User: Which sequence fits this backbone?
């Protein structure tokens, strides 16, 4: 298995080849250009998603109500010319404050819903834990598989 720290140490110890360094600079410029393009596209996607959400969450349900296309039950819908169906659906946002988690878990158990409780470690938390353990020279259990790699990082000037 590769150890990025060893690779980095090996690269720092070598003299720089000007021709190869030129290729490195070309690749870094390509990476920067790709990142700039990705940033523009990400902003475009965000603007499109915001417009889509405004229409689906506010404008279209309101327009359907005003047009009399919603029953007293809150249900309503229609079919577009291309065959796609548009309908209203009730949804909700749900949040649980961190300070209330243990009390909520106890309530779930008391109410007979303990099957909803799942032991879970978020992948980014597991990654941070593993990196910390390795940096401290600690061994990880055999069931954890790691694949260290080097990556180029681009920071804004």
Assistant:
């Amino acid at each position: 298995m590769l150890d990025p720290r060893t690779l980095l140490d090996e690269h720092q110890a070598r003299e720089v080849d000007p021709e190869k360094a030129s290729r490195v600079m070309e690749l870094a410029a390509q990476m920067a250009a790709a990142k700039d393009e990705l940033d523009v596209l990400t902003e475009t996607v965000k603007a499109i998603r915001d417009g889509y959400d405004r229409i689906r969450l506010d404008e279209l349900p309101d327009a359907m109500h005003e047009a009399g296309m919603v029953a007293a039950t809150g249900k309503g819908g229609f079919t577009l010319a291309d065959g796609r169906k548009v309908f209203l659906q009730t949804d909700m946002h749900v949040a649980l404050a961190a300070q209330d988690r243990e009390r909520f878990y106890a309530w779930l158990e008391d109410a007979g819903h303990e099957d909803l409780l799942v032991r879970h470690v978020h992948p980014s938390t597991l990654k941070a834990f593993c990196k910390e353990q390795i940096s401290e020279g600690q061994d990880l259990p055999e069931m954890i598989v790691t694949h260290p790699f080097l990556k180029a990082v681009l920071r804004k000037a």
